[in-house]
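Record minuted for everyone:
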Amino acid sequence: MTLGQATIPERIPHARQPRELPTVLSGDEVVRFLESVSSLKVRVALTTAHAAGLRVSEVAALKVGDIDRQRMVMWIEPGEGVKPRHVMLSATLLGIPRG
């Protein structure tokens, strides 16, 4: 009992449980995962998403014209209310065959 009232402890908010960090794959695990994808088109999309840190919707909206090979950047136009941005490209990502 708290101050003679039995219901007060139920009304006291409890601290939230801490969130667990997501599992992060090692470099070798990422390579093994990407090599296990049989479709070249899907593998290129997944590799691009991982290498450039893109969301699925951003990868799906990419066009060949969004890639500037000279400056080594991609122009990303995300959805509603988010500003478009340039994302750096690696030489490895540019070397992937286009399917």
Observations:
- The chain is about 35% helix and 10% strand.
- The mean pLDDT is 83.
